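sry for the spam today, last one i promise. C-alpha cells for design, 522 residues
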C-alpha cells in the first residue's frame, strides 16, 4: 500500500510539474511597448535578455511586466499609463478559462467553491480573468518572478506533508519525485561539483544536504541508521553561502515549477563568472517557455548564447529623460555574431552594459586611453565623463565587425585608430560603413589626401635602408635592435613614413587640410 501511495504521489508530482506545458490553456507575451515608442514582438519560447547601463530600467522593466500580468481588467489601462518603462503588452493565449478550471479541479485540492493547486488558491469566478487581456488572479499559474531575496528564501528547510496533505513548496515535490531530484542535483553539480540529497529521516522537516551523495552499502537503505548518519555529516543547503543558495533557489523554482513565463532579476548575484555562464546554459536547457532576464553580466549572456543562441533576444535599454528606449538584436543577428571569434572571445559584449564604448586596435591602446580618461576624471572636471568600456579588437581589420555589432544594439561608439588606417581605401571604407557612414562623403577627400601623401613623401631607396640597418648593427653590445630594424624596413612606404615622422614634408599644410575635412565629416 505504501509503495502504491509513493508511486501515485511521484506520478502526480511529475504531472503537476509540467502543468503549463501540457495544459490546453496557455499564455505567453506576444508584444511589449516601451515608453520610448519601440515595440518588441515575441515568440512563445524566446529567451529575452534585458541589458544596458546602470539606471537604464532593466529591473524596472522586469517588475512592470510581471506585475502587469496580474492586474485586473478594470485597472489595466491606468496601470500602463502610470508605468515608467512598459506602456502596453499583449498576450498570446490558447484555450479558455473553462479549460483551466477543469484542469485545476482535476489536479488540485477542492474546498467548497475554491481550488488549491501548488501554492496558489483560486475560485471559478476568478479563473475567468484568463479570458481578459492579462491574467489577473490566475497569473501565478502562468508566470514566476524571482529576485535575489526571494530565491535565497526558497531553499529554507521545509516541513514535510503527509498523505492527503497539500504539497506547496519545491521541496515537497522533490521529496516525492526521485527523477526530478536527480535532475536538480545534476544541474547543481555542474556548477559546484557537489550533490544535493535529502535526509529521509528528518521528520517533521525534510532537510536537503549538500556534498558527495553517500553510497548505499549492502544491508542499508535511505532510512537506515548508518546511512542517515553519513547524510548528516554534510551541511544543509539552507546553511550555505548566498551563492549556493541563490543558484539552488533558481533551480528549485525553474525545474520544479516551470512556467510559460519566468522572470529572473540579476541571476548573476552572489555568483562567480564560471557559475554565471553555467547558470545561463542551465536555464536555457530547463526553460521550455519564455524566459525574461535582467542582468548586468556578460557571463550570464554568454551562457545563454553558448546553450542556444537561436532563442536569445538581446534588448538593450537606454534612458533619455523620462523615456526608456529599447533596441533589439534579433535572434538571427545574435546567432550570426556569435559565430565570429572577435565577438565570442573578446570583451566586446561588455560594452552593452556601459554608456559608451571605444573600439581600439589592441590592448596597449585601450590601456593608454583608459589611463587618459582616469587622469582627466581626477582633475576635478565639472562635466561627468561617460561610463566607458574600451574594446581591444586585435587589429584594425577586426574593428568594423565589432562596430557593426555594437551599433545594432545602439551602443554609442567611438573608434580609435593609428593614422595608417588611412593608407588603404578598402579598410577605411569598411570602417566608415560599419558605423552607418556613407563612403561617398569621404571618397574624394581620401583620394586627395592619399595623393598628397604619396606625392609629398619620398620613400627611402633600398640602398638607404640597407645603409641605415648596417649602422644599427655596428654596436650590438646592448642587444639586437629589432624594433629599429623593423622600423627602417618600413621606410620604403610613404604612409609608414608619415606614421613615423608625423609629417607630410612640403605638402603638410594640404595634408592637414584634407585630414581636418575628413574629421569634420566623421
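last one done:
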Amino acid at each position: 500500500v505504501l509503495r502504491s501511495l509513493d508511486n501515485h504521489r511521484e506520478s502526480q508530482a511529475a504531472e503537476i510539474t509540467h502543468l503549463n506545458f501540457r495544459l490546453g490553456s496557455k499564455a505567453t507575451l506576444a508584444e511589449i511597448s516601451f515608453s520610448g515608442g519601440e515595440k518588441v514582438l515575441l515568440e512563445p519560447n524566446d529567451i529575452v535578455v534585458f541589458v544596458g547601463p546602470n539606471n537604464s530600467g532593466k529591473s524596472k522593466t522586469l517588475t512592470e511586466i510581471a506585475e502587469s500580468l496580474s492586474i485586473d481588467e478594470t485597472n489595466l489601462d491606468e496601470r500602463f499609463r502610470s508605468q515608467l518603462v512598459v506602456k502596453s503588452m499583449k498576450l498570446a493565449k490558447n484555450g479558455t478559462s473553462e479549460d483551466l478550471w477543469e484542469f485545476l479541479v482535476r489536479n488540485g485540492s477542492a474546498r467548497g467553491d475554491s481550488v488549491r493547486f501548488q501554492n496558489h488558491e483560486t475560485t471559478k469566478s476568478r479563473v475567468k480573468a484568463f479570458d481578459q487581456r492579462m491574467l489577473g488572479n490566475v497569473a501565478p499559474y502562468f508566470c514566476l518572478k524571482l529576485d535575489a531575496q526571494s530565491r535565497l528564501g526558497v531553499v529554507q528547510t521545509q516541513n514535510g506533508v503527509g498523505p492527503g496533505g497539500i504539497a506547496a513548496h519545491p521541496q515537497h515535490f522533490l521529496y516525492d519525485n526521485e527523477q526530478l531530484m536527480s535532475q536538480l542535483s545534476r544541474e547543481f553539480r555542474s556548477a559546484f561539483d557537489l550533490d544535493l540529497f535529502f535526509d529521509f529521516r528528518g521528520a517533521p522537516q525534510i532537510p536537503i544536504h549538500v556534498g558527495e551523495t553517500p553510497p548505499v552499502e549492502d544491508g542499508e537503505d535511505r532510512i537506515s541508521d548508518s546511512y542517515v548518519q553519513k547524510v548528516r555529516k554534510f551541511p544543509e543547503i539552507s546553511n550555505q553561502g548566498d551563492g549556493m543558495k541563490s543558484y539552488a533557489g533558481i533551480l528549485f523554482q525553474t525545474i520544479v515549477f516551470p512556467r510559460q513565463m519566468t522572470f529572473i532579476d540579476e541571476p548573476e548575484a552572489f555568483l562567480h563568472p564560471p557559475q554565471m555562464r553555467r547558470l545561463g546554459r542551465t536555464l536555457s536547457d530547463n526553460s521550455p517557455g519564455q524566459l525574461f532576464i535582467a542582468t548586468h553580466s556578460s557571463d550570464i549572456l554568454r551562457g545563454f548564447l553558448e546553450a542556444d543562441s537561436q532563442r536569445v533576444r538581446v534588448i538593450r535599454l537606454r534612458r533619455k529623460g523620462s523615456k526608456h528606449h529599447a533596441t533589439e538584436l534579433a535572434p538571427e543577428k545574435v546567432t550570426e555574431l556569435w559565430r565570429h571569434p572577435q565577438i565570442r572571445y573578446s570583451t566586446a559584449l561588455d560594452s552593452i552594459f556601459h554608456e559608451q564604448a571605444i573600439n581600439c586596435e589592441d590592448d596597449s591602446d585601450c590601456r593608454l586611453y583608459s589611463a587618459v580618461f582616469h587622469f582627466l576624471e581626477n582633475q576635478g572636471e565639472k562635466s561627468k565623463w561617460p561610463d566607458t568600456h574600451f574594446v581591444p579588437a586585435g587589429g584594425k581589420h577586426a574593428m568594423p565587425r565589432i562596430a557593426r555589432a555594437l551599433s545594432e544594439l545602439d551602443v554609442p561608439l567611438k573608434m580609435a585608430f593609428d593614422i595608417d588606417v588611412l593608407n588603404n581605401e578598402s579598410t577605411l571604407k569598411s570602417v566608415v560603413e560599419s558605423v552607418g557612414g556613407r563612403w561617398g562623403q569621404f571618397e574624394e577627400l581620401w583620394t586627395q589626401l592619399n595623393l598628397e601623401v604619396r606625392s609629398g613623401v619620398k620613400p627611402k631607396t633600398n640602398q638607404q635602408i640597407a645603409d641605415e640597418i648596417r649602422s644599427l648593427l655596428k654596436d650590438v653590445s646592448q642587444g639586437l635592435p629589432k624594433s629599429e630594424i623593423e622600423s627602417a624596413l618600413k621606410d620604403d612606404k610613404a604612409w609608414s613614413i608619415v606614421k613615423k615622422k608625423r609629417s607630410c614634408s612640403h605638402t603638410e599644410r594640404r595634408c592637414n587640410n584634407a585630414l581636418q575635412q575628413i574629421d569634420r565629416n566623421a
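The domain at 2-315 is CATH 3.40.50 (Rossmann fold). ok im logging off now
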